[in-house]
Amino acid sequence: AHQWRGVIEEYRDRLPVSTDTPVVTLGEGGTPLVAAQWLSEQTNCEVWLKVEGNNPTGSFKDRGMTMAISLAAQAGDKAVVCASTGNTSASAAAYAVRAGMLPLVLIPAGRIAKGKLAQAVVHGAKLVSIDGSFDDCLRIVRELGKHYPVALVNSVNPVRLEGQKTAAFEVVDALGDAPDLHLLPVGNAGNIAAYWKGYQEYAKDKLATKKPQMWGFQAEGAAPIVRGAIVEKPDTVATAIRVGNPASWTLAENARDESGGRIEMLTDQQILDAQRGLAAHEGVFVEPASAAGAAGLLHAKSQGWLQGGSTVVITVTGHGLKDIDTALDHIRVDESPVTPANTDAVARVAGLV
Ligand code: F0G
C-alpha cells in the first residue's frame, strides 16, 4: 500500500532540493478536495474545498515549513525564528523540534487563538509575546535573522512559497485540470502568490490547459491591499489574517492582475456566517480566517460576479479546533439544562416526544 510521503518527496522534481537535503517531514500535503454541496447549490457552480486543516499541525503552513526546515537543516542551522498570528508558529515549532532545532516565535500578545498557542508551547517553542501587531513581530524577526544565528522561516523566505505551491499541483492532479476560479483568504499574502506560482508551472509544462483567476479575500478591518494603504491597527475576528502590511503585497497584486482575478474585503459577520455555513452544511469546521474564501464566494454571488457552471476551488486554510473560543463566542450554543440520566427525560429534552 502506498503512503503519501509529504510534499517534498511527492513533488521533488519541482522543488529546490537536492539529494543532499535532509527531508524533515510529518507527511504534510495530500489533503482532500471535498465536493462542496451547499456552496455549489447556492451558486450554480461546481465548488470544491481544499481542506488544509488536514495537515499535520492543522494548517497549510506545513507545506512551506517542510521546505524551510529541511533547507535550514541542510545549512546546519541550530535555531529558527518566525513572527506569527499563530499557525506559522505552530508549524515552525513542530518541524523545528523534529529536526533538533530550537524554535523561537514572536506573536502579538493576546491576539492569537488558544489552540495555536498550545501547539507552540507543547512543541517546546521559545515564545515571545510582543506588545504590538503581527507586523511589528515580522519587522523584529527580520532584524533578528540579520544579526543573530537564527534562520528566518516566515514566507519572506522564498522556499516557504515553493512548498506551498504544491497545493495547486494537488488541485490539478485531483481535478484533471485547473479550476476556473481559485478563492482563498489573504493575510500576509504568501499563499495566494504560492498557488499562482504552482498553477503557472503546471500550465507551462502542459499539465493543465488553463490557469484559474485568483480571487483573494481580506477582512474589512485588515484590508491593506484592497484599500491600497498600510493599516496601522489591523483588527478582525479572523485573527490569522490580522495583518496590516503584508510581506508579499506585490506578489499578491501580481497574482491578481496576471490571472485577471480580484482581491476584495469582507465584514467579520460575513466571515463568521460562512464559518457557520461550512460547519453546518458541509461538515467542515474551519477557523474564522479560513472561511474567508467561502464568504468571498457567497459575496461574489450576491454581487453578480460569478458565471454559472464555473469550476471553483476554495482553500480552507486551517482547522476549526484551533480557535474554539471564537466559535463558541459567536455561535449561539443552546445548552439544555442538566438532564436526569433516563431515556424518557432525554427524549423530552431532545424534542423526540
Ligand atoms: N488562513 C490562515 C488560517 C492563516 O493562518 C493565514 C496566515 C492565512 C489564511 C493567510 O495566508 O498569510 O499566506 O496570506 N497566517 C500567518 C501566520 C500570518 O502567522 O500563521 P497568507
UniProtKB/TrEMBL annotation:
Source domain of life: Bacteria
Keyword flag Cell membrane: no
Pathway, per record: Amino-acid biosynthesis; L-threonine biosynthesis; L-threonine from L-aspartate: step 5/5
Record's keyword annotation contains Amino-acid biosynthesis: yes
Binding site for pyridoxal 5'-phosphate: N87, G187, N188, A189, G190, N191, T317
Family: Belongs to the threonine synthase family.
UniProt xrefs under PANTHER family: L-THREONINE DEHYDRATASE CATABOLIC TDCB (PTHR48078:SF6), THREONINE DEHYDRATASE, MITOCHONDRIAL-RELATED (PTHR48078)
Chain's role: Catalyzes the gamma-elimination of phosphate from L-phosphohomoserine and the beta-addition of water to produce L-threonine.
Designated name of the protein: Threonine synthase
